[in-house]
Amino acid sequence: MYGDPAEIRKILTELGDTWAVVGLSSNRTRAAYRVADVLQRYGKRIVPVHPKAETVHGEQGYASLSDIPFPVDVVDVFVNSDLAGAVADEAAAIGAKAVWYQLGVVDEAAYERTRAAGLAMVMDRCPAIELPRLG
């Protein structure tokens, strides 16, 4: 359901290359830092979203999705499942095309709301794992 291979492929190849990475900071030990690096190597523009609004991997950071002054295609979520629903709602509000919940991040109600709003969505998956599988 929320890890549908066709949906994964669609998000990674068809919906655009600007990825807001929620939870991305300059902390090199965090998964978000490493995944953002992989996304960049695959040609994605990453946009760090973190309360500190740090520049990461050469990209200006923003404190929230609504602070980003340009369109975002995919919102990649590295926050606890308890907080992830609000991020999905904000992604829909800013006009993103898709929401991607990282490994371990699951919120069934947010999935239903996000899909009902017309966005593509994947939960409990990692684009750094899925991108190399595309070949």
Q: Count of helical segments?
A: 5
Strand proportion, as a percent range, falls in 15-25%
Secondary-structure-derived class: alpha/beta
Helix percent band: 25-40%
The major β-sheet equals: 5 strands, parallel
How far from one another are the termini?
Answer: 23 Å
SSE order: HEHEEHEHEH
Cα-atom radius of gyration = 13 Å
Strand order of the largest sheet: 2-1-3-4-5
Write the layout of secondary structure elements.
Blueprint: H1 5-13, E1 18-22, H2 31-41, E2 45-49, E3 74-77, H3 81-93, E4 98-101, H4 108-116, E5 120-122, H5 127-133
Parallel strand pairs: 1-2, 1-3, 3-4, 4-5
Helix pairs in contact: 3-4
Report on this structure:
The chain is 36% helix and 16% strand. With 135 residues, it is an alpha/beta fold. Strands 2-1-3-4-5 form a 5-stranded parallel beta sheet, with helices on both faces. The protein is globular, with a radius of gyration of 13 Å. The mean pLDDT is 96.
